[in-house]
Amino acid sequence: MLDVILKVDHISKQYRLGVVGTGTLSHDLKRWIYKIRGKEDPFLKIGDKNDRNSKAKSNYVWALKDISFEVNKGEVLGIIGKNGAGKSTLLKILSRVTSPTTGEIKTKGRIASLLEVGTGFHPELTGKENIYLNGAILGMTKSEIKAKEEEIIEFSGCQRYIDTPVKRYSSGMRVRLAFAVAAFLEPDILVVDEVLAVGDAEFQKKAVGKMQDISKGDGRTVLFVSHDMGAIQNLCNRCVILNDGLIQSIKPTSEAIKEYLTINVLDSGSVKEFQKEATLVKMLSAEIQNNGISTTNFHSGDDLDLFVSIENEEHVPVNLFVGLYDQYGEKIAHFGNTYSKFDIKSESTKVCVKLKRLPFVEGRFHINLSLHAYGKPHHLEKEVFAFEVSPGDYYNMGKNVLRNNGKFLMNVGWNET
């Protein structure tokens, strides 16, 4: 039988819009009258869902609404969703930073949180003093903290600055030390928000490896929030998908990522117009085509034609860069006209970028566009297009290439010598 270490039971969190504090005197009085009569808070019955794109119909919003799930000991649970879905609010409630409006949380053991850069650190104290402060907050004795001190400092890579006040640390140094403290002081549940994105690639790899050790080797539980689908895939057993403060679904990681990307990756079709009025160097529109037809559907071996309309009122050389990302948000290619002999100098032009014979077996990909002038970016558009690649006859053999052939296809020559 699985050992449940964390139970979230019908958690909701309501906020009042437009004011700081508890609200108006009349609302407070009404709540007090209902309370002494033993009735439910009247303002819990109203409030919009947390959809940032819609106009508010009331002064209240549900950041979370009726959230329930269980986490087993030793499990790594991913929490994913678009910005504003309620992920950070949920972690703050789980970490006791804020209280839920309704519902309750049942836990077994200590919870350590890494919600923001330097969470729980006192800026005037040194790195070493903050290690002991955080340990004390977790309920550890001085001798227990002392036994882990050297491991924490070594993992953080902050040996040289450990006796320097934390206020003098860079954001990367603070997150390194904060993660080391949270991971090595042996909490039963480790809660990690998006903060690892602040660290460099080397530290992110170390941090993910440490979290795997925590869950598999030590049998401790990790709650992990990230927009990095690659890290979610490598680390988590299951995922909770949040959408507008509600649980959309709870699924095994691979299924959850596929559902999340299908719903939330920006896909504006095969034609996109841009609004960028503040600069004289800008992109006006973009379009992707397959064999002369506007579409977002391709097969392995198809040519993808990307058309970008550019306005250059300053008549200066400009450079167009294209970033290609996979379904997990990892960059798989980056190219621009600076890597060729193609110059863009015209006042108004339409550039065609041809991706010849797409070398992908199957998957979902998206494109970022960036226009540079004077050596600096002037216009950036992220996730302009999301396109699907289905198995195709890449090798012209009369049959489609299957998924189990890997991720990328190679144009290989064979001959006898």
Task: Spell out the key features of this protein.
Coagulation Factor XIII, Chain A, domain 1, 417 residues, alpha/beta, Rossmann fold, five-stranded antiparallel β-sheet, six-stranded mixed β-sheet, 2 domains
Structural class based on helices, strands and sheet pairing: alpha/beta
Mean pLDDT metric? 83
Tell me the name of the CATH class of the largest domain.
Answer: Alpha Beta
**In total, how many domains does the architecture comprise?**
2
Q: Helix-strand pattern, N to C?
A: EHEEEHEEHHHEHEHEEHEEEEEEEEEE
CATH architecture of the largest domain: 3-Layer(aba) Sandwich
Question: Count the helices. How many?
Answer: 8
CA radius of gyration: 26 Å
Q: Kindly identify the CATH topology of the largest domain.
A: Rossmann fold
Q: How would you describe the shape?
A: globular
Low-confidence stretches: none
User: Taking strands numbered 1, 2, ... along the chain, how are they ordered across the largest sheet?
Assistant: 6-7-8-4-9-10
Helical percentage: 10-25%
CATH level-4 homologous superfamily of the largest domain:
P-loop containing nucleotide triphosphate hydrolases
- Per DSSP E runs of 2 or more residues, the count of β-strands stands at 20
Largest sheet: 6 strands, mixed
Gap between N and C termini: 62 Å
Instruction: Estimate the strand proportion.
Output: 25-35%
